[in-house]
Amino acid sequence: MSTKKKKSSNSTGAIASNRKAYRDFHVLEKVEAGIELRGTEVKSIRQGHVRVDEAFVHIDKGQAEVLQMTIQPYDHGNVFNHEPTRPRRLLLHKKELTRLQRNIQQKGLTLIPLKVYLTRGIVKIEIALCKGKDSADKRETLKKKTADMEARRAMRNASR
């Protein structure tokens, strides 16, 4: 008899992730932040209606905002529904904000959201300090990924 654990309601599975970020950028450092949301936004995120593919983080006047993150309007919302692509404030400590702002002022560094997830019922976003890749780096990453996949396939076939 197998004993499978049930997935609890407070699991930290990703609701949305930005897979393009790992292809287009070198991820240097990751930071967890909270998001200032409205009620219908939280309900919509819980249903999985969020996209962070095109999003980026902007720091201005001591506040960080995530721009171009799309949260679709809540299905059962009414006049209190939200605008899908409005800027949303990120909740970070002041020391983290100043450190990140100092880092993004360097040439070629930017802040990109990697994933949106729930932690104990609270919506969190993982942002990363990234440096853009050029096309040669992208090809090298693709070659490495393909070689790893072929090696795993060969190991699996050899064990049969």
Which oligomerization state do the chains in this entry correspond to?
A: single chain
Average pLDDT, rounded to a whole number, is 87
Number of domains: 1
Strand order of the largest sheet: 1-8-9-2-7-5-4
Q: What is the name of the CATH class? A: Mainly Beta
- The share of residues in helices is 25-40%
- Cα shape: globular
Ends apart, CA distance between termini? 26 Å
The H-and-E topology, N to C, reads as EHEHEEEEEHEEH
CATH architectural label: Beta Barrel
Describe the sheet with the most strands: 7 strands, antiparallel
Question: Which class best fits the helix and strand makeup?
Answer: alpha+beta
**Spans of at least 5 consecutive residues with low confidence:** 4-11
Rounded radius of gyration (Å): 19 Å
CATH homolog superfamily: Small protein B
How many β-strand stretches?
Answer: 9
Here the CATH topology equals Small Protein B, Chain: A
Task: Summarize the topology.
Layout: E1 14-17, H1 19-24, E2 25-35, H2 39-46, E3 50-51, E4 56-60, E5 63-67, E6 70-71, E7 88-91, H3 94-104, E8 109-119, E9 122-132, H4 135-158
Antiparallel strand pairs: 1-8, 2-7, 2-9, 3-6, 4-5, 5-7, 8-9
